[in-house]
């Protein structure tokens, strides 16, 4: 215990000297088979190595941990987590795939899968997302609604709307209930591809399962219909939103104000309060050319 505390203090002291910090850590690692002592030091050395982009040293650590008689799964997966959080998704997936090959019957928690999927989407690596989803199915880890929301979002961003809708329709079969974020993601996907009418169908579906459309979904659909030039449908949505008891925010007020301008009904916008909100939202943006 004292040795572990001393190592932790030394790593903190030498956090700006990654080469020396690594030498200290490696020395302890090579003389100690009890990986419980690394519980405190590993979270310290990993960020140091990642910041210095000392990936070969991280690979060495990975392989050394794997060679132990009882490889510490939690420590090995923490390496993957640190790499993913730092945005190094290629390195993270490489380590993760190695662990899944060595320990196919011992998958990590869904939380790590979620992190890897999210980072893969941010780094525009759809192939990694596909592989992770297949591994999830193989490992039989219990899915979360958040997991499927991420996957649906990735499919929508890739314009694979049919696949996104298919996954959406099978959520309950996978033990997950769609939430308002699920509907918002799919509605945005439809609208971005010029299919606002498809997105509109989701409003009735939401209500049929006891969910109330939120302002984000309404604003997305209203903006999309305005963009398509379907002013009548946009106007109906504004009224429907109010019937649902939702108070317009600045975005809604701006959309409605512009909608009534387009319809030639300047006297019928949201009233004085709505006009003021619209004016405030543009007050510091300069003149519209």
From TrEMBL:
In the record for this protein, the PPR repeats are positioned at 144-178, 179-213, 214-248
Q: Which UniProt keywords apply?
A: Repeat
User: Which InterPro entries does this one have?
Assistant: PPR_rpt, TPR-like_helical_dom_sf
The protein's matches in Gene3D superfamilies, at most eight in alphabetical order, are given as: Tetratricopeptide repeat domain
The source's domain of life comes to: Eukaryota
User: Per UniProt, what is one Pfam family of this protein?
Assistant: PPR_1
Which family does the record claim for this protein?
Belongs to the PPR family. P subfamily.
The protein's name: Pentatricopeptide repeat-containing protein
In which organism is this protein found?
Answer: Sesamum angolense
């Amino acid at each position: 215990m004292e040795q572990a505390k001393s190592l932790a203090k030394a790593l903190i002291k030498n956090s700006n000297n990654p080469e020396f910090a690594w030498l200290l850590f490696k020395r302890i690692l090579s003389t100690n088979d009890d990986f419980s002592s690394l519980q405190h030091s590993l979270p310290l050395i990993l960020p140091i190595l990642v910041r210095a982009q000392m990936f070969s040293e991280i690979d060495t650590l990975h392989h050394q941990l794997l060679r132990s008689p009882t490889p510490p799964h939690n420590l090995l997966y923490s390496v993957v987590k640190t790499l993913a959080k730092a945005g190094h998704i290629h390195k993270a997936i490489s380590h993760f795939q190695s662990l899944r090959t060595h320990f196919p019957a011992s998958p990590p928690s869904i939380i790590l899968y979620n992190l890897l999927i999210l980072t893969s989407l941010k780094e525009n690596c759809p192939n990694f997302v596909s592989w992770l989803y297949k591994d999830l199915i193989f490992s039989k880890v219990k899915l979360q609604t958040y997991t499927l929301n991420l996957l649906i979002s990735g499919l929508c961003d890739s314009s694979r709307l049919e696949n996104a809708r298919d996954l959406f329709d099978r959520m309950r079969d996978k033990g997950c209930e769609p939430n308002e974020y699920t509907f918002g993601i799919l509605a945005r996907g439809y609208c971005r591809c010029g299919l606002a009418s498809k997105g509109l169908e989701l409003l009735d579906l939401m209500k049929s399962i006891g969910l109330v459309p939120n302002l984000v979904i309404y604003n997305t659909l209203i903006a999309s219909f305005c963009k398509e030039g379907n002013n009548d449908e946009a106007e109906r949505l504004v009224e429907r939103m109010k019937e649902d008891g939702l108070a317009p925010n600045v975005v809604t007020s701006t959309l409605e104000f512009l909608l009534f301008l387009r319809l030639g009904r300047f006297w019928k916008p949201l009233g004085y309060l709505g006009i003021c909100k619209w004016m405030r939202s543009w007050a510091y943006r300069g003149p519209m050319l």
